[in-house]
Amino acid sequence: MQSSLVLQNLVSAPVLFFFLGILAVLLGSDLEIPSPLPKLFSLYLLLAIGFKGGLELAHSGLGPQVVLTIGAAVLMSLLVPLSSFLILRSWLDPFNAAAIAASYGSISAVTFITAESFLNVLKIDFDGFMVAALALMESPAIVVGVLLARVAASSADTVKKSQKGNIAWNEILREAFLNGSVFLLIGSLVIGGLVASFSPTGLTKMEPFTDKMFYGALCFFLLDMGIVAAQRIQDLRRAGPLLIAFAILAPLVHAAVGLALSLALSLPQGDTLLFMVLCASASYIAVPAAMRMTVPQANPSLYISSALGVTFPFNVVIGIPIYMALIQRFVPAS
Amino acid sequence: MQSSLVLQNLVSAPVLFFFLGILAVLLGSDLEIPSPLPKLFSLYLLLAIGFKGGLELAHSGLGPQVVLTIGAAVLMSLLVPLSSFLILRSWLDPFNAAAIAASYGSISAVTFITAESFLNVLKIDFDGFMVAALALMESPAIVVGVLLARVAASSADTVKKSQKGNIAWNEILREAFLNGSVFLLIGSLVIGGLVASFSPTGLTKMEPFTDKMFYGALCFFLLDMGIVAAQRIQDLRRAGPLLIAFAILAPLVHAAVGLALSLALSLPQGDTLLFMVLCASASYIAVPAAMRMTVPQANPSLYISSALGVTFPFNVVIGIPIYMALIQRFVPAS
Amino acid sequence: MQSSLVLQNLVSAPVLFFFLGILAVLLGSDLEIPSPLPKLFSLYLLLAIGFKGGLELAHSGLGPQVVLTIGAAVLMSLLVPLSSFLILRSWLDPFNAAAIAASYGSISAVTFITAESFLNVLKIDFDGFMVAALALMESPAIVVGVLLARVAASSADTVKKSQKGNIAWNEILREAFLNGSVFLLIGSLVIGGLVASFSPTGLTKMEPFTDKMFYGALCFFLLDMGIVAAQRIQDLRRAGPLLIAFAILAPLVHAAVGLALSLALSLPQGDTLLFMVLCASASYIAVPAAMRMTVPQANPSLYISSALGVTFPFNVVIGIPIYMALIQRFVPAS
Amino acid sequence: MKRIDLFLNEREANRVCKALHKAGAPGYSVMRHVTGRGLAGEISEDMDFSGLGANAHIVAFCESHMVNRLREAVKPLLELYGGVGFVSDAEPL
Amino acid sequence: MKRIDLFLNEREANRVCKALHKAGAPGYSVMRHVTGRGLAGEISEDMDFSGLGANAHIVAFCESHMVNRLREAVKPLLELYGGVGFVSDAEPL
Amino acid sequence: MKRIDLFLNEREANRVCKALHKAGAPGYSVMRHVTGRGLAGEISEDMDFSGLGANAHIVAFCESHMVNRLREAVKPLLELYGGVGFVSDAEPL
Ligand SMILES: Nc1ncnc2c1ncn2[C@@H]1O[C@H](COP(=O)(O)O)[C@@H](O)[C@H]1O
Ligand SMILES: Nc1ncnc2c1ncn2[C@@H]1O[C@H](COP(=O)(O)O)[C@@H](O)[C@H]1O
Ligand SMILES: Nc1ncnc2c1ncn2[C@@H]1O[C@H](COP(=O)(O)O)[C@@H](O)[C@H]1O
Ligand code: NA
Ligand code: NA
Ligand code: NA
Domain containing C286 — which CATH number? Predict the structure, then answer.
C-alpha cells in the first residue's frame, strides 16, 4: 500500500518537475528561472490558494468543527516552535535555534498545495477551510520565534544592553502579520470570502485564473524550487549532521502529533492529511524574510537550508505518501 | 439604487484587490509586485483588450453610429486638454498645466476595463467598438498637451530662444502615436480585426488567453495599482489642495459632458458608461511616458499623482457606480 | 494554391504579432517586452511543447516509423553542420563558420510551433513524436559545431598550443546536453511521457496550462521575437551579402532534403511539414548560448543575426507556406 | 584615465549614451532599474509598468583629456532632463 | 568630494537609505539584485521569491566633510545586519 | 586599498568570479543585466531569453598588493572572451 502511494506521488507532474530542477543542479545544467519570475509564481499561488480557500470558507461557514480545527492548527504553530527551540538549543546558539524553531512552527504553502494535488489524484475530498488554518499558522510561529530569541538572548546576556530593547513590538508584529506573503494570503482569503458571499458572478470569472492555471503554475514553481533546494545542499555541510537529522525527524514527529489531534477532532482523511502536512512542513518564504529583519544574528543559510533543502523535499517526495499511508490505517474512509 | 451600485462595485474582486494593495501600503506591509511583473500584466491587458476590441469591430463593422461615437471620443480628447489647461493655468506654470491637461484628455485603459467588468456583473451589454474609441483618444491628447506647452512657453518667453524649436514635430508624433502602450493597443486592435475577418479559427485558439485569463490578470494588476496609487498619496501634499480638487471634480464634469454627448448619440446604457469613463479617466501609462520626453520641464510627480493617486481610485471605487446611477436615470434600458 | 497558403499564414495571429514587433522597431516605437519576460515565455513554450510531445509519444509508442523518423532527424542534425561548414569556410574563418554551421544543424522550436499552428489552421494532423525529433536535434549539432571549430583551428594552427586542448569534452557535452533550454525540453518530454503512462489524471489538470494558453503565449513571444529580429537587421550590414544569401538559401535546400527524406520514410503531410521545418530552421536559443562558451572566437552577431534576423523570419513568413505547397504537390493527403 | 558616473532617468539613458558615443567615448556601461534620491525627490520602480522607468547609472572610462568633450556632450541633457554626474581617477587593469 | 559605496542585503537597503537621508546625504542611488561574496559566504538571487532578496549596492556622493556623519549613520546597521562599505575620491562632472 | 571594476558578458561572469575567489579576493559583487558598448559593439538585453544575457559588472575591493594576483587571474579570461577592467583607489569606510 504505502509503496504504491509513494510511487503514485513520484510520477505526478509537480513532483517530477521538482526532480527535474534538482537534476539540473546536480548535472551542472545552466537552467535557471531568472528572478523575479519565481516571485510571480509564488505570488500567484498564494493569491489563488487564498481566494479559493476564502470562497470555500464562505460556503462551509464557521461551524464548531471549523473553529476547533483552526484553533488546533494555531496551537501547533505555538507549540512546535517552543519544543523545537528546546531541542535545537542543545547544540545551537539562541538566535539560530529560535529562527529555525519559527520556521518549523510555520508552514510551507507549496507543500500544502502539493498535498492537495495528491488528494485530487487519489480522488479524496478535503475542506476548503484548511486554507484558513494554513494562513493563520504563519504569524504566531514568527512571533514565538522572535520572542524566544529575545528572551534567550537577554537571559544569556550575550548582547549589549543597548541592543536588547532595540526592536519594538511594533516591528515584530509587522513582520509577523504584514509580511508580504502572509498579507497576500490572508487578504486573498478575505476577498474570496467576500466575493463568494456578495458577488457570486465574480467567482466564475476568476475560476480560469485561480483554478485552471493552478496545476501548471505549481509545476513551474516546483521546477524552480527543485533548483533552489538542490543549490542549498552544499550549505548543508555547514549545517552539520544534527541539524540534518532534525530536519528529517521533526516533520515525522510533528505529523504524528498532527495525526493524533486530527483523530481527536475526528477529521476526515483528506483534512487529516492537510493538517499533518501543516504541522510537518517548515516555512521558507515568510519566516526567512521575517527572521532576517528581526533576528539578524541568526545565520540565514541554516534556517533556509534545513527548511528548504531537507524538510521540503522530504515532505514533498516521501512525507506526503507516508502520512497518507498512516491515515489509511488509522482514519476510516468516509 | 445608487448606494447598492456602489456596494456591488465594492465587493467585486478587482476592486477588492485594489483595496488590498492600498491597505498593504497604509499598514506598512512589504508586499510588492516586483518590476517588470506589473509591466507583464499591463502589456497583457492592452494586448487582450485590443484584440477583443478588434474582433468585435470586425463583426460590427464601421457603421455611422460607430464612426460618430469614435468621432465624439476623439473630439473629447481634444477639448478636455484645452479646457483643463485653461483652468490649471490659473495656479500652475504652463508646463505642468499642459502635462496634466494631456493626462485628463487621454484615458485610463484599466478604468475602462473595470467598467466593462462592472457591466458584466450587472449583465448589461456593451459594444466592442468602444475599444477603438479608447485606442484613438490617447494620441490627440498627447499632441494637444505638447503643443500647449510649446505655445504657452514661447508666448511666455520663459525659455531661451535656442530651446524653442528644439524638439521637432517628428518627436511629438512619435511620442503620441508610437508610444509603446498606444502602439500595442492599436496594433492588437488591427490584428484582432484581421484575424476575425480572415482567419476565424484563430479566434477560438486565442480565446483562453485573451478572454479567460482576463479577469484574474486584471485583479493582479489592480493589486499592484493599489500599491502604486497609495504610494502616491504622500506626493499629494506637494500637489496642493487645488490640484486634488481638480482631480476629483474633473472626472465628474467630464463624465457629465460624456453623458450629454451619449444622449445626443443615443448610445445604449453600456456604451454610455464606457463613454463616460473614457471622458472621466486620466492617463497614467502613455501620457507620463510621453510627457517626460516632450515636456521635461513639468514635474512628473504632479501629473502622475493626480491621475493615478486621485482620479483613478475615485473612478474605480465611486465614479463608475455613480455614472451608472446617472445612466439608469437618463438612459432608457434597451 | 501557394499564394493562398502564404496569405493564410500571413493573417494568422502569431505571424501578425511577429510583424507588429518588426513594425515597432522600424517605426521607432519604444515598445519593449522587458527582460526577463521573454524568458518566461520561452521557458513556458519549451515546457509545454515538451510535455505535450512526451504524452503523445507515450500514446504512439516507439514503433519503427517513429524510430526511423527520429533517426533521420538526428542524421540531418549531423550532416547539415558539416555541409554548411564546408560552404561557409569559403569566406569565413573556421570559428565563425563552425558556429553558424551548428546553428543551422540545430532547430528553432518557435518555427516548429508556428508550423504546428499553421497545420492546426489547415486542419491537417501531425504526430506528437515529432517533438522528440526536435528535442534530439539540438545536441548533435552543437557537438559537431564545436568539434569542427577545434579541428579546423588546430589544423590551421591559428591558435596557440596552450589553447588547443584547453576546453575539455566535459564542457562540450555539458553545453550540448545540459544547456538550459535543451535540458528543459528533454526533461519535459520525459515527464510528459511518465505522467501519460502512470498518472493520466494529471494530464487533464495540466491541459489548461500547457494547451489552452499556448497559442496566446506564442503570440506574445513572437511579438518580442519580431522586435529582436528587427533590431538584428542593422547587424546584417556587417554580416555581408554572402551570409545573407546563405541564410535564405540554406533553409530552402535543407527543406528540400527534408522533403526527400520524408518521402523515403513515407511520412504523412503534417509530419513532413514539421520535418522540413526542423531541417530548414536554425537555432537562436540553445546554440548561441553554447557557442559563446565553447567557441568564444566566433562573433555572436554573425550567428545570431543570420539565424534570428534572416532565416527565422523567412521560415515563419514565407518558408512554411512554401514548404506546404511543395508537400501538397508531392505528398498524398491521407 | 578617468571614470565618469552619470545618474539620470531611464527614459533619457539612450539619448545620453548616443551623445557619449558621438562625442568619442571609447565605451560605456549602463545599469537600469536604479532607484535613489536627489534634488527631484525619491525615484522608485513604481512607474516601470508605464515605460517611465526608474533611473539609469551610466559609467564611462576614458582618457583624461576626453573628459571635457564628454562633459560638453552630456551636460545639456542633464540640465534639460535632470540627473547628476561625477568624475574620478582610474587606471586600466 | 567623496564617493561612498555600500554593499548589503536588499532587505536592509531601505533602512540604510533612510539613515543616509536623515544624516544629510545630498542624494544616493541604489542598485538591487546584486549578487556576490563576502564574509557571510555567497549571496545569490535564489531566495528572491521569498522577499529575502540578494544584495543591494548603494552609492552616495557627498562633500568630504560629510563622510564622518554618514559613516556614523550607516556603520551600526552594517554591524548589525552585515555588509561592507568603501570610500574613494570623486569630483562633480 | 584598490577597487577593481570588470565588465564582461554575463555568461562568463561565474567563471571570472570563481577565478577571483581562487586568487584570494576577499569578496566581490556582481551586477547583471548591464548593457553597454565597447570594442565588440553594442550589447543589449535582447538575447536574454536565450541564456546569452547582456553584460555583468563585477566590483572587487582588495588590498593594493593583491591587485597583481587578481589581474593575473582575470586577464586571460578577458582576453579569451572579451571584456574590460579598470582599477582605482579606495579606502574602507
Ligand atoms: N549625491 C548623490 N549620490 C548618488 N546618487 C545621486 C546623488 N544625487 C543624485 N543622485 C542620483 O541621481 C538621480 C537624479 O538626481 P536629481 O536630478 O538630483 O534628482 C537621483 O534619483 C539619484 O539616483
Ligand atoms: N571586497 C569586496 N568587494 C566587493 N564587494 C564585497 C566585498 N566584500 C563584500 N562585498 C559585498 O558585500 C556583501 C556582504 O558582505 P559580507 O557582509 O562580508 O558578507 C557581499 O555579499 C558582497 O556582495
Ligand atoms: N570605456 C568603457 N567604459 C565603460 N564600460 C566599458 C568601456 N569599454 C567597454 N565597456 C563595457 O565592457 C563591455 C565589453 O567591452 P568590449 O569587450 O570592449 O566589447 C562593453 O559592452 C561595455 O559594457
Ligand atoms: Na509546521
Ligand atoms: Na479622459
Ligand atoms: Na536545422
Answer: 1.20.1530.20
Query: B229 CA distance to ligand 5 centroid (A)?
Result: 18
First to last CA, chain A: 18
Residue B25 has what pLDDT? Answer: 96
Taking domain D8-89, whether its CATH number is 3.30.70.120 is answered by yes
- Would you say the CB of residue D43 lies under 6 angstroms from ligand 1? yes
Question: Which residues of chain E are within 8 Å of residue A231 when distances are taken between CB atoms?
Answer: 44, 46
CA geometry: angle at A91 spanning A89 and A95, to 5°?
Answer: 50
pTM of the model: 0.95
Strands E28-38 and D2-9: unpaired
| Cβ(C140)–Cβ(C146) below 8 Å | no
Pocket lining: F24 vs ligand 2, CB cutoff 6 Å = no
Decide if A199 is inside a domain.
yes
Whether C188 maps to a domain, the answer reads yes
pLDDT for B7 equals 87
How many domains, in total, are found in chain B? 1
> Is residue A18 one of the residues assigned to a domain?
no
Full 3-state SS string of B40-83: HHHHHHHHHHHHHHHHHHHHHCCCHHHHHHHHHHHHHHHHHHHH
Q: What is the 3-state secondary structure (H, E, C) of A108-122?
A: CHHHHHHHHHHHHHH
Ligand closest to CA A101: 4
Q: How far apart, in Å, are the Cα atoms of A199 and each of A132, B161, C255, C291, F69?
A: 21, 60, 56, 56, 68
E58 in Cβ contact with E6 (< 8 Å): yes
CA distance C13 to E33: 36
Closest residue by Cα to residue A44 from B207, B49, B224: B224
Q: What is the pLDDT of residues D11-23, one digit of tens each?
A: 999 999 999 999 9
Handedness of CA A270, A273, A278, A279 (dihedral sign): positive
Question: What value does the mean pLDDT of chain A take?
Answer: 91
Residue D50 forms contact with E (CB below 8 Å): no
Query: Distance between CA atoms of A321 and B185, rounded to whole angstroms?
Result: 49
Grid cell locating D92: 586600466
Q: CA C113, CA A301: separation in Å to the nearest integer?
A: 42
Q: Which residue of B has its CA nearest to C123?
A: B201
B185 is a domain residue = yes
Burial of A163: CB neighbours in 10 Å, binned 0-12, 13-18, 19+:
middle
Among residues D34, E44, C237, the alpha carbon closest in space to that of F35 is found at D34
CA distances from B42 to A34, B23, B224 (A): 20, 21, 10
CA A103-A105-A106 angle, to 5 degrees, is 65
SS (H, E, C) chain F: CEEEEEEEEHHHHHHHHHHHHHCCCCCEEEEEEEEEEECCEEECCHHHHHCCCCEEEEEEEECHHHHHHHHHHHHHHHHHHCCEEEEEECEEC
Non-local CB neighbours of C113 within 8 Å, separated by 6+ positions: C45, C49, C214, C218
Q: In sequence order, which ranges of A32-93 are alpha helices (DSSP H)?
A: 37-60, 64-88
For chain E, the distance separating the N- and C-terminal CA atoms, rounded to the nearest angstrom, is: 11
Return the pLDDT at A92. Answer: 95
User: What is the domain partition of chain E in residue ranges?
Assistant: 8-89
In sequence order, which residues have a C-beta less than 8 Å from that of residue A216 and are 6 or more positions away? C205, C206, C208, C209, C210, C213
Nearest to A50 by CA among A183, A143, A197: A183
**Which of A161-165, B204-208, C306-310, E55-59 bottoms out in mean pLDDT, i.e. has the lowest?**
A161-165
Q: Does F37 touch chain D (CB under 8 A)?
A: yes
Sign of CA dihedral A110, A115, A118, A119: negative
User: Which residue among C36, C43, C209 places its CB closest to the CB of A216?
Assistant: C209
What ipTM was estimated for this complex? Answer: 0.95
Angle between helices C214-239 and C37-60 (to 10 degrees): 120
- Backbone phi, psi, residue D30, to 5°: -125, 125
- Of residues C36, C174, C197, nearest to A37 (C-beta): C36
